[in-house]
Amino acid sequence: MLANVKAVTLPLFGDDRGKLVVLQEFSDFVPFQIRRSFFIFDTMPGTVRGSHAHYRNRQMLICVSGACTIKCEMPDGTKSSWRLDWPDKGLLVEGLVWHTMEEFSKDAVLLVIASELYDEADYIRDYAEFRRCASVQFMGDNAGSEVAACRT
Ligand code: T46
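A: This is the predicted complex of the input protein with dTDP-4-keto-6-deoxyglucose.
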């Protein structure tokens, strides 16, 4: 799968009782089967989490309370920064994307919906290895091919 980072506005139903946001698998907003979810909260000021990429895992990130910033680096070196500060704002992160989560507000709760079960072997935690995989994906006969092609 080619690397992709996309901001989405999740379906929101609001009335005088409050607001409700829907996350449904195989939808335009979550375009994969949901196999796992987890959330991050009670982060200390200045915390930077993440600092990794995935071979296969696809994720939708939503800050359901408070705010945090997701910083992404694509295989071609392009960098982007996304502030998630409202529960209907989602960030879809797919393919080989180096990402960090930082600038958490005190009340931040970051919900992550994932396409894969937890597997430490799916993580690239070494930045040099990420750059090596990125060059494998983008150069020569491997251009656009599965990220797994970079596994040695
Ligand atoms: C990601 C970002 C957005 C498990 O045992 N099972 C799980 O499903 C997860 C997600 C984590 N863990 C264990 C592994 C570590 O011992 O929890 C500990 C903390 O995990 P990690 O340091 O990977 O947490 P983050 O916040 O850096 O990254 C997490 C996800 O791991 C990752 O997939 O993309 O959130």
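Confidence is low (pLDDT under 50) at residues 140-144. The pocket of dTDP-4-keto-6-deoxyglucose is lined by residues 36, 38, 40, 49-50, 59, 101, 112, 118 (CB under 6 Å).
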